[in-house]
Amino acid sequence: MSAKTLTINGKPISAREDETILEAARDAGIVMPTLCHLDGLTDIGACRLCLVEVTGISKLLPACATRVAEGMEVRTDTEQLRKYRRMTVELLFSERNHVCAGCVANSHCELQDVGIAVGMDHVRYDYLFPKLEVDLTHPQFGMDQNRCILCARCVRVCDEIEGAHTWDIFGRGVKAHVITDLNQPWGESLSCTSCGKCVMACPTGAIFKLGSTVEESVKDRSKLAFLKNARDKKQWVM
Amino acid sequence: MTAPAGPTRPAPAPPAGPPRPSTAAPAAASAAVDKRLKLVEATMRRHGFRGNALIETLHTAQEAYGFLDDDLLRLVARTLKLPLSKVYGVATFYNLFTLKPAGKHACVVCLGTACYIKGSGRLMDTLHKELGLKAGGTTANGHLSLLTARCFGSCAMAPAAVIDGEISGKIVPDALVARLRKLAEDAS
Amino acid sequence: MTPEELDRTQERELADDAKYEHQVHVCVGTACVALGSATVAKNLEAEIKASGRDGKVKVRCVGCPGLCALGPLVEVEAKDKPEDEPATLYQYVKPEDAREIAESIGGAPASRLQADTRQPFFTRQTKIVLENCGRIDPERIEDYIAAGGYRALEKALFEMQPQEVIDEISKSGLRGRGGAGFPTGLKWATVAKSNSPAVTRVPDDILARKFVICNGDEGDPGAFMDRSTMEGDPFRIIEGMVVAGYAVGAGKGYVYVRAEYPLAVKRLRSAIRQAQRSGMLGATIMGSGFNFDIDVRLGAGAFVCGEETSLIASIEGGRGTPRPRPPFPAESGLWGCPTLINNVETLANIAPIISRGAAWFAGIGTEKSKGTKVFALTGQVNNTGLIEVPMGISLREIVFDIGGGLPEGRNFKAVQTGGPSGGCIPAQYLDMKVDYESLAQVGSIMGSGGMIVMDDQTDMVEIARFFMEFCMEESCGKCVPCRVGTAQMHGLLTRISEGKATQAHLDTLTELCDMVRRTSLCGLGQSAPNPVLSTLRYFKSEYEDKLVKDGQNER
Questions:
Q1: What is the sign of the dihedral through the CA atoms of C437, C438, C442 and C447?
Q2: CB within 10 Å: which end of chain B, N or C, has fewer?
Q3: Closest residue of A to C481, CA-based?
């Protein structure tokens, strides 16, 4: 496996050839906001927060899904990128009903963190106020569609790490939402193993443990990368 | 249209609504059900029961049964060994698959650009005014469904509509209203 | 079928055809069939048989001759007709007109039904992709062979190396006809050079590790070029795919057809079966040792599946959502294998280029846009239908000469090209050359070929809103900018349309258009703002006239 040299924000970086721009940047201490990325899961490049500029390429590329290349010149923090990130987060807040005050994930929510990181202090778009359901039929967990950002981390973790593929997505576009089995109440799902990985994977308070307080709702998301390494590489790294 | 029965589950109660006239003796009716099931199974078999046959299978099922209900989706999932949620996700992604029974007659009005320019949008307004139907709706007696699509490729005959599977072009609003009213009242 | 058998088949067909003194062609494209043309054909055959002339007059069902506005169309051609004289063409033919037409054969034409074949629509086109449509029976492989079919495949398999085929396509200057205009030869070369990975997701019943896909998911509303080609000359597309497979080293092909085109699906399936039975598909094609087979895959009603990676996801049996590129399908596509995806029209150009040579093709069109383009001309224009013209022709000639201008009492306002991904071109550009670069310069795109003429009664803000509604409904929902952005842009356009928006709303819309264009995952989102940006560029006053002015009630 050969090494690649590239520059990120003018800083020369060395990376393994199978690393993504996001991984290489993180190793070098360069951060950028992400939401649909989760260590241990396949990247889908859906939230568009990690888009970066690459010299010589007219399109913006998602850092999480783009492999490094020799001599790449990457910029992660231009004014335009910051502006687009801010607008993306505003679109997310306008899409569903994100009410932090009453949410169990308040203060450890990745959507909140990203909102603060991009400097969002208001939303310039009309709120869509869709009418969405809350599913409390599962004995241990709950699902609140109002808080979901359709990052599909729950879908991916249940498919790739647990293997049950209980979650998937119904429909298309802005009317899409996550479902279990045949669009059944979660409590009636026969495929669900109650492993709780989707709770761990969910960036917001959309999927949560019933009866837990805000303090108890801190999620240990690194567990998922741990599991992936254990399964694929037979390496147990805590 | 009776709901299809899976091989190991009892048939669910038919959807609530106006009673539909039975068109065949019970034995003939179950043979009719079996034939539709055989078509679906044939498609799956033709593709070696592999997961990538899902869309082709749902097509056959949609054509044979007119809509995809839970039991049918379960059957397909079980036979192709796919997760239930994946099958549901695919069935709801594409316009052509419906999960609810359609009316006895269906009129699909094209809202593609060429037809729209030639007045199909206003046509929908007229249909709503005269027949009380919106896109995706079915008359209370279950006789007529009104649907929309974006382009059958018959743009030179704009505005176009497909009525019970047959394309009609250069539609005149009054004529369409009269024709659809007759279908909606049709008691045969 | 070996080359020798191909020769014999062609000779036999031509000799057979030469027996007839008159050929009668009846269009059986979807539109004409809907107006009763299949019955017209049946009745004509009956009339000619009844009068004992079936040994001298041949009735043939054919694909689309193009002038759909006058359909159903019937063409009568005498064997000894002078080369430069057009055949007799009958318009608006009803089943009951069969006798009148049958009796006119060999004598004076039935003038009541006659169409004007000397008008620009028929004299100013250059048919390459559509040259067989309207001339051969699309359901008979022998008809295709009689017209010179499979000579390109024969040449490629027996006289050319795969790299030579790629070079020929590159030299021709052919560019993708699906809309993006990517150089076809370059795409082929990339696929040819890509190695299949050791680990793929190919199902165990498929041996191939490289694929060719024909994109027949023509989703642009207002476009029916590909439908007509698939219905009217399916063998041409298949031949193109086999040549492509040979050139890039693929063993299997798929034609992805949208389910809204049942006749195209039927004709393609029939063509594939006949090709298989004749040894033009399957193992050792034409005895050459090259193996290639084709299956049809159905779309199910999703515009986004016209996008390459979404189409691949759909063939794999899943939701048609796109994937980030890179990696491109040419390197990693269907089931992880190198995959060549080309549009129907692109593939229909392959056989003529191989047969007649790259230099011939490059001699048509402009410097950067070679060859012809098929357009579906619709909307407020007289001669609605299918046309094929050389790149570089002017918009004015298309709309006013070939298209016959706008109907009585209507004035030209704009022509929309490229469907929901394109833009509106106003009157000041009527004399522009139609090619990839020029269209991009005026803020539109070539797109797949839909060309919609709009008159001065068209509300351009409403048009923008209409296209945005389409994109919003067709958005797959994966990425935030497209999923939420199209809904927000649609909301803003609705506000403007209803007179409830201020300048601030218009500014927000413009800003959002730029963001969605730059950050969306795939072409659907990236081009969804185009109709807005284009109408803002040329018809800004229509937007501004609808705004609530400062000082009035704002909300």
A1: negative
A2: C
A3: A88
